[in-house]
Request: fold
Amino acid sequence: MIKIPTIKLNDGNEIPAMGFGTFQIPNDGSTYKAVRQALAFGYRHIDTAVAYFNEAEVGQAIRDSQIPRDQIWVTSKLWLQDYGFEAATKAIDRSLEKLGLDYLDLYLIHQPYGDVPGAWRAMEEAKQAGKIRSIGVSNMTPKIWSEFVPKFATMPAVNQVEFNPYFQQTALRQILKKSDVRLEAWAPLGQGNQRLMTDPVITKIAINYHKDVGQIILRFEYQSNVIVFPKSVHRERIKTNLNIFDFELTGDEMNQIKHLDKNQGQHDPDAPGVSAMLLSAFDVHSND
Reply:
């Protein structure tokens, strides 16, 4: 079984450098099956969120795996409807209940709008109470980071944002580096961007290493000190995404991929109306 390296966070906790993402995997048994497969292949880092509506299946898969709890890193995220101190406090307990866990390894502000400082205080309190080991944020651009983070008593351990060779978040990474905040990549393979998956630079490198393009991209991100968690419901893809620790890209190859950066992603958190659009997109209390 492949042993995944860990990365030390600024709070001292060690997070597996690669995890398994569950975004858009339905809660019809598909999430349970995919997480069980991922754990069987050696993944020890599972990323979910209340707005994914699959926390219960993630938790059941973790329990049924019979892997000791302290060997699995579990991340979930707070949704916009539950921002503010009191609402966030209740939401953390709800996520733990749905997951069937005593604690979360990482809990994130999912979207950075509204009463983020109030939600953050609730997360800090939950951390002090032992309900959460590490706390972080998600989708924070440099502009949003400067708006909220200076108000926090605790520095986030991670910022989970869109990241791949075509969108390398250079300005944001410079800000995060100052406080030893780790970047986590959602959509590390570009969410099906065929231009990325057929890019001739990456394709040529893949041929040289007898790897597929996805493995080269994930290796580039790992060597860039980015935490990745590719998502798939396909058994073979779940397995092969892990095979990135038996080779190393050269400095020249890393530079070739760095030069592919277009500094443009699919999602712009700074765009007007994003907050209202996201708030209306999901009702995380519809089944309460």
About this structure: The longest strand covers residues 132-138.
